[in-house]
Design a protein that fits this description.
Shape: elongated
Radius of gyration: 20 Å
Helix content: 10-25%
Number of strands: 20
Largest sheet: 6 strands, antiparallel
Distance between the termini: 35 Å
Number of helices: 6
Strand content: 25-35%
Order of helices and strands: EEEEEEEEEEEEEEEHHHEEEHEHHE
């Protein structure tokens, strides 16, 4: 599998990623436990998806219990794990702001906010307030952005007031959105906390009804995959996109209580090998993984099968990323040109 040195290759970062290598957990296929495939109700993270009533057209979907992207191939038999006990992982907080391209080179773009919104210039100055739930259909206009009734300078920020969300196209998003004119087309980039981003990715890449340990394995793999792109961005304007070419991300519509739980119970955990971050590829089935990634990476259906057999997420990860270590990370803020 591909490995990325977390610091040496990419020194110009907003954050330095410091693996706490003094307390890693070596991942090995291990013995199943009777309660590993589910989490008692009292242990679930209590985070309710937001309710929205907006006039954004097209209206973003706020249905966090039914992700739109699910693996479609037939279930594949999972690799048979051997039995070894693994120590409990250590949790540490993280603070990574990921730049996710949610619209790339589009001619027009519908945007709005669920609460009162603001448009800021790149220096942070408020240029205009937006009424909650009122859509704007944007167009690129050279080095400006045409909101229909007025034009803004290029590279403006769209933000909702506290407790609100930003609507772009068909989805609502947490965080803030940067709008960029590229002459005749628009680029929209969602600036969002990594852990918050994963609430949606886990439910967009894997059905939220699957066993919690499969979702937790997905959370760790997706976090590691995203961090590799954070360290080596796809583009000067963003780290990662939203489609299956990267990881599927649908904002609030990908979230569910089970995906909050999976992310929070694995918060800050990444896969490393020999001190380097693992580029944690995955696909729907083992057949797809073999074809697309030379057999390196996780089968999502295989992870589901192992979880249903009673294996916990550390054993699932140890099966698909042999020799890897589950490592908590700490993020140290550094100077940055972005707000």
């Amino acid at each position: 599998m591909t490995l990325t040195n977390t610091l040496l290759r990419f020194p110009n970062l907003r954050y330095s990623l410091i693996p706490l290598l003094a307390a890693p957990t070596l991942l090995l296929p291990a013995v199943p436990t009777s309660d590993s495939a589910s989490v008692p109700k009292q242990n679930l993270v209590s985070v309710s998806p937001p309710s929205q009533s907006s006039q954004i057209n097209p209206q973003p979907s706020i249905k966090p219990t039914s992700p739109a992207i699910t693996p479609t191939a037939k279930t594949q038999a999972a690799k048979t794990p051997t039995k070894t006990n693994v120590a409990a992982p250590v949790h540490k907080p993280t603070d990574v702001e990921l730049k996710v391209a949610i619209a790339i080179n589009v001619d027009t773009l519908a945007v709005g906010t669920s609460t009162t919104g603001v448009i800021r210039d790149e220096a942070g100055k408020v240029l205009r307030s937006l009424q909650a739930g009122v859509p704007f259909n944007l167009q690129a206009s050279g080095n400006e952005i045409d909101f229909g009734v007025w034009k803004s300078p290029n590279g403006v920020w769209l933000e909702a007031t506290p407790g609100g969300y930003v609507g772009v196209g068909e989805h609502w998003y947490r965080g803030k959105v940067k709008l960029i004119s590229r002459g005749s087309t628009l680029l929209a980039v969602n600036y969002v906390n990594l852990e918050t981003y994963l609430y949606s990715v886990v439910g967009s890449e894997m059905p939220s009804s699957w066993p919690i340990d499969a979702l937790k394995a997905q959370a760790v793999a997706a976090r590691s995959y995203a961090l590799v792109r954070y360290l080596k961005p796809a583009n000067p304007y963003y780290h990662i996109g939203t489609t299956q070419a990267w990881q599927v991300y649908k904002g609030l519509s990908g979230e569910a209580s089970s995906t909050y739980t999976a992310v929070e119970l694995t918060r800050g955990q990444i896969l490393t090998a020999q001190g380097s971050l693992v580029d944690a590829w995955y696909a729907d089935t083992q057949e797809t993984t073999d074809r697309a990634h030379d057999g390196k990476g996780m089968s999502q259906y295989g992870a589901k099968d192992l979880a249903k057999q009673g294996y916990d997420y550390t054993h699932i990860l140890g099966t698909y990323y042999p020799g890897s270590t589950l490592t908590p990370i700490q993020i140290l803020a550094m100077a940055s040109g972005d707000r």
